[in-house]
Structures are given as structure tokens and as C-alpha cells.
């Protein structure tokens, strides 16, 4: 039976490496391969370098890569997926890409538009989890724990922090295991 594992922590805390180690162990135990779902969009040189370093860290693993942040539920449902485990890195970038794909004025954003964006994001996540469960796949998700630093000073930051927090809470509620990574040390919290 497939399991869902959430790996959360601060930015550059070692989450991705920890998640990749988990996936390597699971794939060896189950003799299956992995599909790495990369959700990041490259928008500057710093991000390009970060993506390159992530790719370099995985180059010996012989995993397939899917670059997507939207319609993942449909992709999983319609794909053959002979791969027994999925690694999504990361949920936070998925949320960012979905909320920023439209050219919106977030400072003037009203509650109705915020709710529509929130519904869009949460439905994407729910559909993805449902498809993973329906296919009985293992899934490891990486996310950022961004709400630990206090209340944000502007509307967009508060909206984003709350939406990532709600997304993380949903995934944690659906997860069989949850790990918090601090300074590259993973601690199981569920």
C-alpha cells in the first residue's frame, strides 16, 4: 500500500536531501523507481543555479523527471506510472506558481479573489493526493515551513503565508509520516 510522507522545514534546511534519501531507501526496499516532480520555475540566475545544483545531486539516481506544478492529479491519473514512488519538490513553489500565474494586483485584491485563488490551489493539491491514493503510489512531498517568523507586514505576504500554511496542514493530515528538518537533521513528528 502506498504511503504519503511530508518533509517540511525552513529554507535551505536540508529538506530536499533528506527527502531524496528517504526516496532512495523506499525505492530500494520496494525495488521500484522514482519520478521526481520539479515544480520550480526558473526566473533568474540564482534560481537557475539552485535548479542546477538539485539536478546535479540527483544525476546518479536514474530517476525520471516531470517538470510541472499544475494539473498533477490529472497527470498522475492519466499516466502509466510504472514508477512506484513520486517525489514532489516542492509544494511551496507549486503554490507560488499557481497564485502568480495571473497578472494580478495583490495589494488591491479583495477577499473573493483571494478565496478563488485559495480554492484553486487547495483543489489542485486535493486532486493530486486523490490520484496518488487511487494509483496506490508512494509520495514524498517537500515543503517550506514559512509561518514561523511572525505576522507579515503586507497583504500579499499574509495571504501567501496563510495559503502555504493551509496547504501544509492539508498534506500533513493526509500523510502517513511527517518529518521536520532542521540543519539537515530530520525529526519525525507524525
UniProtKB/TrEMBL annotation:
Keywords: ATP-binding, Cobalamin biosynthesis, GTP-binding, Kinase, Nucleotide-binding, Nucleotidyltransferase, Transferase. GTP binds at residues 9-16, 38-40, 67, 89. GO terms for biological process: cobalamin biosynthetic process. The keyword Repressor does not apply. Its EC number is 2.7.1.156, 2.7.7.62. It is an enzyme of class 2 (transferase). The active site is at residue 54. PANTHER family: BIFUNCTIONAL ADENOSYLCOBALAMIN BIOSYNTHESIS PROTEIN COBU, PTHR34848. This is Adenosylcobinamide kinase. It comes from Peptostreptococcus anaerobius 653-L.
Amino acid at each position: 500500500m502506498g504511503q504519503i510522507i511530508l518533509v517540511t522545514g525552513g529554507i535551505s534546511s536540508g529538506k530536499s536531501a533528506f527527502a531524496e534519501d528517504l526516496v532512495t531507501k523506499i525505492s530500494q526496499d520496494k525495488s521500484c523507481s522514482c519520478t521526481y516532480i520539479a515544480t520550480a520555475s526558473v526566473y533568474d540566475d540564482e534560481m537557475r543555479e539552485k535548479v542546477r545544483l538539485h539536478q546535479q545531486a540527483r544525476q546518479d539516481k536514474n530517476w525520471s523527471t516531470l517538470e510541472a506544478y499544475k494539473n498533477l492529479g490529472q497527470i498522475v491519473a492519466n499516466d502509466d506510472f510504472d514508477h512506484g514512488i513520486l517525489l514532489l519538490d516542492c509544494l511551496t513553489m507549486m503554490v507560488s506558481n499557481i497564485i502568480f500565474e495571473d497578472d494580478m494586483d495583490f495589494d488591491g485584491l479583495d477577499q473573493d479573489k483571494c478565496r478563488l485563488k485559495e480554492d484553486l490551489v487547495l483543489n489542485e493539491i486535493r486532486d493530486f493526493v486523490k490520484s496518488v491514493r487511487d494509483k496506490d503510489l508512494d509520495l514524498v512531498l517537500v515543503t517550506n515551513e514559512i509561518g514561523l517568523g511572525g505576522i507579515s507586514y503586507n497583504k500579499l505576504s499574509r495571504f501567501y503565508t496563510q495559503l502555504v500554511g493551509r496547504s501544509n496542514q492539508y498534506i500533513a493530515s493526509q500523510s502517513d509520516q511527517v518529518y521536520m528538518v532542521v540543519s539537515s537533521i530530520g525529526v519525525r513528528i507524525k
